[in-house]
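Journal club prep — side note

Before the paper discussion, L.F. wants everyone to see what a predicted structure for a comparable chain looks like in token form. Sequence:
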Amino acid sequence: MKEPILEPLLRKMRLKQVLPYLLQYPNCRLLDIGCGWDAKLLLAVEPFISSGVGVDFKAPPIHTEKLKTQSFVLQDKLPFENCSFDFITMLAVIEHLENDESILKECARLLRPGGGLLITAPSCYAKPVLEFLSFKLNLINPFEIRDHKRYYNKKDLLALINKIDGLVFSQHSYFQWRFNNMLFCLAKN
């Protein structure tokens, strides 16, 4: 699948945000929720993890010694045992989910105590820019932008995390000119 021109650059910028957090969990068990049609995050971080699983309705078939993908639609439940992962990523995913709260509850269930959850999500400032880049210039996949259910600011994300028993807010920042949020949470001990 050929990507619009800005997609690889935006993905590379997100990866740059992820690595410092992931490296706090050397040789971790990683779950990448919403790994996409090419699972590029999993492939990029393979040297730093002991195992990685990517899930997405458009996940490619990958099954190596360290990596595997599973193709299914994200609903309310994920098919893994409690405390299965040390680190979970949801990069540019939560805004596409019908029920963001349910998936975050699942993340809390799946993380081992002290494990990390890293989320990136477009901010409210990004909406007009993403729509222009997508619908007018075709530099970003229009399907992806049309599929956004919501945009977030820091207050929205903190309110959401505070509803989730088992997750504790650790850090929030904006990146990409305040167009994206990055939220890091820890699983309660």
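L.F.'s comment for the group: The chain has one domain: 7-187. Keep this in mind when we get to the figures.
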